[in-house]
Write a structure and sequence with these properties.
alpha+beta, Alpha-Beta Plaits, four-stranded mixed sheet, Endo/exonu/phosph_ase_sf, four-stranded antiparallel sheet
């Protein structure tokens, strides 16, 4: 193939070929180029226009070979080749396709952007709706629980209020109760409660000479618990009870205030203590529930030396519980006089003991003699009666500090019946065995708070505390009668 033009195959007519120059330039006149279109299986011959110098020769040859054209034929427009129109259509189609593709891409892009935007909005709305539902559910659950807690608090407040009211009623009721002892019993009382009530009315009217007292009783045998209407009636009964000794029928009847078991037990212990002191020629008496010492007496020591001893007496009263307002029975577990004695400054060393007939020694001795001491000093312990040991388990529970010893008394038949006793010896301030007083008393106070643990405890011993004419009690807290001052010397 000569020249720079290429031959391409027609898309619309695959069996035809066309020169590329015709595609790129539609205005090329057919007179300048001579083309021959043959089948695709034959060769394509393209002749170039001859040079200008040879144009005459070329025209002569063409005139010889061709029939001369008529005037009409020359006036007719020469039709363009079919391939040019097809390529133009193809070009237009490709341009249109490109525009369509561009438009479609733009449309797709816009639609995708819109979908993404709408999708994010919808997802956000769905999440918000779901979260809102969950939050509402949690809020509802919280409110339900809060209401439940409020109801429980109200219920507890009502219950506490009821219990407080009930307790106050019981206290008020106990304040209006009186105990009547030694009133002759009638076997018919158990079947007929009116008999006991008539007896009490007779006691109040005939024995106490009172007319406006109303009694409520129950029908159980034993000690009678009678209830009066108010505190004024109770005080009137207490004032008039001394008149019973003048009435032969009721001379053995006693009327007392109603007390709890622990209060009665303490009072019984104190009364036993007073009786024991009287037998030991000690001047003590009972005044308004307190033990009052009328005069100071010094007892001789049991062993040699200047030891001091204190006596404690134990009486345990057990109550057979019954219903409110019923007769209730009492029995004595033990009534031991002179049950134990606490000894201070025993002058014992190591494992030495003191033997006294009828007593068992529980001691806490000094380990050795002071380097400058001529004899053993200090030491504390208890003498406990053997018959008390038969009723109680006696245990040394604390003896880690020199001069302090604790005993525990545990009822063998009732393990809840427990009391403690402590004996103390505090050396004088000028002694070779002198200790830090503040630390000693602080240790003792700690033991008092921790060892009894709410049980009764008895503290005895020698504190070497010379208070002279100062009060030996706490003003504003304790109320004790004036003591007779013998020793006017005071410690620093």
């Amino acid at each position: 193939m000569s020249g720079s033009h290429e031959i391409v195959e027609s898309i619309l007519c695959p069996n035809k070929t066309v020169v590329t120059a015709e595609i790129h330039n539609d205005e090329i006149e057919t007179s300048n180029v001579s083309t021959s279109i043959i089948d695709s299986s034959n060769n394509i011959n393209i002749r170039k226009r001859p040079a200008s110098g040879n144009s005459d020769i070329f025209d002569n040859k063409r005139s010889k070979n061709q029939t001369p054209m008529s005037k009409d034929e020359k006036s007719k427009p020469i039709p363009k080749p079919k391939a040019k129109s097809e390529m133009k259509e193809l070009k237009e189609m490709m341009v249109g396709l490109t525009d369509s593709m561009n438009n479609m891409c733009i449309s797709f892009t816009q639609r995708i952007d819109s979908l993404e935007k709408n999708m994010s909005i919808e997802i956000t709305q769905l999440i918000e709706e779901k979260v809102k539902v969950e939050i509402d559910q949690v809020r509802q659950d919280f409110n339900d629980q809060l209401e439940n807690f409020k109801d429980q608090i109200k219920w507890l407040e009502a219950k506490v209020s009821t219990q407080v009211k009930s307790y106050s009623d019981v206290v008020k009721q106990n304040n209006c109760n009186v105990i009547i002892r030694n009133l002759q019993e009638d076997p018919r009382e158990e079947s007929n409660t009116s008999i006991l009530k008539k007896k009490l009315i007779s006691l109040v009217r005939d024995g106490l000479n009172l007319r406006d007292i109303f009694i409520e009783v129950n029908s159980k045998p034993g000690v009678i618990i009678a209830a009066v209407s108010n505190g004024d009636q109770e005080r009137a009964l207490m004032k008039a009870k001394r008149n019973l000794k003048d009435v032969h029928k009721f001379k053995d009847v006693f009327i007392e205030n109603d007390m709890s078991y622990s209060e009665r037990r303490n009072e019984a212990n104190f009364r036993t203590l007073i009786r024991a002191f009287k037998q030991e020629n000690q001047a003590f008496t009972m005044s308004d529930g307190r033990i009052v010492k009328l005069q100071h007496n010094t007892q001789s020591s049991v062993a040699s030396g200047e030891g001091k001893q204190n006596e404690f007496i134990v009486r345990n009263v057990h109550r057979h519980e019954g219903n409110n307002g019923q007769r209730q029975g009492y029995s004595n577990r033990a009534n031991s006089r002179g049950s134990g004695r606490g000894r201070g400054q025993t002058h014992l060393v190591k494992n030495n003991k003191i033997s006294v007939d009828g007593y068992t020694w529980f001691g806490h001795n000094r380990i050795g003699i002071h380097i400058r001491g001529k004899a053993v000093s200090g030491g504390v312990g208890f003498f406990v009666r053997n018959d008390l040991i038969e009723l109680f388990n006696v245990i040394v529970v604390e003896d880690s500090i020199d001069g302090i010893c604790w005993l525990k008394f545990e009822d063998k038949l009732n393990l809840d019946n427990i009391f403690y006793a402590c004996v103390v010896y505090l050396p004088p301030e000028n002694s070779t065995r002198a200790v830090n007083v503040d630390e000693f008393l602080e240790s003792l106070m700690t033991q008092i708070y921790t060892i009894p643990n709410g049980k009764q405890c008895y503290l005895c011993g020698d504190f070497n505390s010379r208070c002279g004419d100062l009060n030996d009690f706490v003003e504003g807290v304790d109320t004790l009668p004036e003591r007779q001052v013998v020793d006017y010397k005071t410690n620093k």
